[in-house]
Amino acid sequence: MSDQATPVAAQASTATPEATSLFAPDSVGLVSARSMEFMTPLMLACGRELASYTLVYETYGKLNADASNAVLICHALSGNHHAAGYYDAQERKPGWWDAYIGPGKPIDTRHFFVVSLNNLGGCHGSTGPSSINPETGKTYGPDFPVLTVKDWVNSQARLADALGIQKWAAVIGGSLGGMQVLQWAISQPERLRHAVVIASTPRLSAQNIAFNEVARQAIMSDPHFYNGRYAEHHTLPRHGLRLARMIGHITYLSEHSMGQKFGRDLRIDKLNYGFDVEFQVESYLRYQGESFSERFDANTYLLMTKALDYFDPAADFNDDLVTAVSQATCDFMVISFTTDWRFAPARSQEIVNALVAAGKAVSYACIDSPHGHDAFLIPNPRYQAVFSAYMHKVHAQITQPTQDH
Amino acid sequence: MSDQATPVAAQASTATPEATSLFAPDSVGLVSARSMEFMTPLMLACGRELASYTLVYETYGKLNADASNAVLICHALSGNHHAAGYYDAQERKPGWWDAYIGPGKPIDTRHFFVVSLNNLGGCHGSTGPSSINPETGKTYGPDFPVLTVKDWVNSQARLADALGIQKWAAVIGGSLGGMQVLQWAISQPERLRHAVVIASTPRLSAQNIAFNEVARQAIMSDPHFYNGRYAEHHTLPRHGLRLARMIGHITYLSEHSMGQKFGRDLRIDKLNYGFDVEFQVESYLRYQGESFSERFDANTYLLMTKALDYFDPAADFNDDLVTAVSQATCDFMVISFTTDWRFAPARSQEIVNALVAAGKAVSYACIDSPHGHDAFLIPNPRYQAVFSAYMHKVHAQITQPTQDH
């Protein structure tokens, strides 16, 4: 490995036995983030290179002797490295995929060494637009390069190198995370045994791009955006980011689940014939947008939506998805959800059909769920059973006993 | 009739024979708008009243001796009174529903006297937020009252009075226009023989409200909005209105038609890895938003979306749509479109099912179209045939010969 990777803040990220007892037995318990610096320039799809960068990540479970039990979690648009467990005993909410990662859960930390990172370009510790550009001493802002899913896979491969993981037992992700899984399978085929692609798509539709474009325009037309240099102006494009999140949120829920959750319920008992919040769904959306705009970086949001738009692995193979996935050597699990209209089951089936045509081993499940695109994050017995069954198969192929890491 | 209605600018709005020859034989030809002032206060659902107001409208065809051949066209969110024909020989685009109104078209102006108005609260000549408030001498802006579909029906009934139309042969509308039709049937049952409800819904879903709310927030968070008093500040909330229209536009098209129209085609031949327009769909949306923001009033847009949110005729009848439509005495034609996901066929079927349960005469057609919600505006042979057949039935019930108006 040519990278000069330096682990920083190398606390044990898995829980101590005493701390664990504060949490449910199927929780990974207390966790903490680590970070890794990479000093070898990373060449990017856009033609630019990053001279150096940091990735922040968490791990759960123990790496076995031959490093054959490692699984990589790839996050979605607004995700981060904190996928499971708690940072302290007072933390109310665990990591974003805690329902699926832990002892006895589908990604069973008794068997697997789980690596979850914040993607390059993110805003939770990994190098991104809100980091300091070493060349200028100021935040990158809009000067941070536009990234693609391929760039992420390359940066993640270096993290794997640094952790001594030559081949992932599985690479797993939902939505934009699923795109990364597909890209791993295609461009790094020798480095994973299984690919688990959840609620994803082989490429965005015009409608998907359109929603992203409106979100970007909302951010970029906010007068506090300052062409991405809001940090230098000591402000934030809160209104734009709030709108972007509201638009996104509508596409994450199904019409049915929104109806079930809010219907036409009013926040107070009668119409006020004005433009203040009246319906519960308005109140919910405003809250979601508001809280997101305080915690997420606008330039990162723009970057993530562009990576979504650009993802199109077939484009490298004469627009033929079958040829693209023919590069893969791993087995596949593809999961979709009935009411997901952002990346509908038909989009997952495009992946499955291409894999079948390419003669690959693929399992596919379309899970009955009312929760739209968000279903991939939400507890669901059938989804958990299907996911667990596949991960048992992944585990069964690992012969080495686990060891402390 | 208690209204003191004064026709203003009473030019003949139908074409002269010489002018007509410039246009296709199935065009209504040259048309012009009229306006009518109403000096009797109109009580509104919000509890306020409008002391006086003007409605601008067009007519096509001739009213017959007993005024039994009049049909009313109700417009949708961004529509207006210019539904058919041309204002001058150089005008490139005819009225918004020209494909369906004219000699030999479904709404056949050889048989019907067609009335098409700009709704109260609009921004094309009828009294609305951009009109001068006689009490202050300034534009109403945000002081203009919030209107409901019921208010529109009441204001339209006064226009009918002034035109000497006691009973419409049919009231016809798509989308928000269809809601007005349904409201006419329920609250003015003795004043229409037929109701034609196209691409509509008995009430908005939580998702529909959510999209409207994001559009409103986009407008209201534009710093040029000035709480609706942008006219006094000699500016316009262009960015907000542009975003609102972009969001709306996505919901008017089907995912399929957007895919067929744009796919993932790039505007230039390669990705530029930046935030300028890259995909054709982005360019289209920006153009649509831009041109709309120059021609439409933001306060009117807010008002129209609120009228959509509020529409819920069942709410007056203990949330029972069957009881609500039991008030009607007219016959119904309900039309939906397969790929309309804004007001899906299932929403039209709710109306049909309620009408059937109430024992009303109803014809229903779900038209196969790739064009989403916009399908109601677009030429389509099957839709035209079904619509024409129903209008022939409406015409057959009119026994009086037509006369000049």
Automatic annotation (TrEMBL), chains A, B:
The keyword Transmembrane does not apply. Its EC number is 2.3.1.46. It comes from the Bacteria. It catalyses: L-homoserine + succinyl-CoA = O-succinyl-L-homoserine + CoA. Substrate binds at residues 245, 374. GO terms for molecular function: homoserine O-acetyltransferase activity; homoserine O-succinyltransferase activity. The keyword Chaperone does not apply. The active site is at 175 (nucleophile), 340, 373. GO terms for biological process: homoserine metabolic process; methionine biosynthetic process. NCBIfam families: homoserO_Ac_trn, PRK00175.1. Transfers a succinyl group from succinyl-CoA to L-homoserine, forming succinyl-L-homoserine. This is Homoserine O-succinyltransferase. It comes from Allopseudospirillum japonicum. The lineage of its organism: Bacteria, Pseudomonadati, Pseudomonadota, Gammaproteobacteria, Oceanospirillales. The gene is metXS.
